[in-house]
Amino acid sequence: MRPTRVITIGSRGSRLALCQTQHIANRLQDSHPQFRFVIKRIRTKGDELEETHLSRFGGKEVFIKELEAALLAGESDLAVHSFKDLSLQPPQGLEIAAVSQREDARDVLVSVKANSLSQLPHGASIGTSSLRRTAQVKSLRPDLDVGDIRGNIDTRLHKVSSGLFDGIILAAAGVIRLGWEDQITEYLPIDICLPAVGQGALAIEAREGDEEIKPVVSFLNHELTRQAITAEQVFLRFLGGGCHTPIAAFGQINNGVLELEGMVSTPDGSKLLRAKVKGSAELPEEVGSLLGEKLIAWGAKEILGGTT
Question: What pLDDT sits at residue 132?
Fold first, then answer.
């Protein structure tokens, strides 16, 4: 009898990462019972330095480098990432084989002091790990004391429940995937807090040219999500942004029309630009470039020049 082919999926060891990877593994197993899918936990530098701000040790790519190294070495066959953790270009030899359908892309407030961001008392302390969130919150509420917070979601939730912060801001998708929606105080509207590029989607990464693995995961790809995120990535690349700059973008597709909104700001939110463009969902690169050109014409380069 022919042995069952085992397909190994690399994952970070955090509760959220394992939850996300298990979700993908379950879908793959249901669709391909002839294979056996196993999860391999891989500790990343980002996990080891979870109390250090991302910008101090290379940015969010530190959450994926070890996963990608394992793929390239043949120690795993797939890796599952939060799309927003990816670099703009996969390393040579790897590719994104599928992009999952997006979960809620918004950010959320968790607080025991108020029912909404607008109701937080003057000078309230807010924890976030993101310059993008900091800039937008400070633009709306310059009176708030916004401080850096790292750690896994459960660690951050404990910090607000224990009174270290009056509130924290997290990605809705992670909280929802962990089944902790009851912790959410407010879903922040897109027009208040524009999401990170790729927020809410999962990326399934594989070795480039692996013709045995790619057909196995192809059904997981949600093309509308992939088109929207492609436009967001092109916009980010156009502006030359990274973890050191408050940049955000969010694309939505309706009836073949891709609407892309972008934001660039100084870290303190004192100068913030937002713009929208529309175009064909079949031409996401064109839409992303168009938005980049529009914000540059409005002065984005001057803002970005002050963030470095």
Answer: 95
In eight-state DSSP terms, residue 20 is H
Architecture of domain 228-305: 2-Layer Sandwich (3.30)
Q: Cβ distance 276 to 248 under 8 Å? A: no
| Alpha helices for 162-239 (secondary structure H) | 172-177, 214-217, 223-239
Read off the tokens for 34. 């002839």
The pTM score is 0.91
Sign, Cα dihedral of 128, 129, 132, 135: positive
Topology of domain 5-101+201-221, CATH: D-Maltodextrin-Binding Protein; domain 2 (3.40.190)
Residue 148 phi/psi, 5-degree rounding, is -75, 140
d(CA 194, CA 106) in angstroms, rounded, equals 7
* Rounded Cα–Cα distance for residues 280 and 14 (Å): 38
pLDDT at position 304 is 84
Which residues are CB-contacts of 71 (< 8 A; sequence separation ≥ 6)? 10, 77, 78, 79, 94, 205, 206, 207
Amino acid making up residue 80: V
Q: Which CATH superfamily is domain 107-187 in?
A: Periplasmic binding protein-like II (3.40.190.10)
- In the prediction, which pLDDT does 307 show? 54
Domain ranges of the chain: 5-101+201-221, 107-187, 228-305
Question: In which residue ranges of the chain is pLDDT below 50?
Answer: 49, 52-57, 308
- The confidence score (pLDDT) of residue 245 equals 82
pLDDT value at residue 239 = 92
Q: Please identify every residue annotated as catalytic.
A: 85
So what's the pLDDT on residue 52? 47
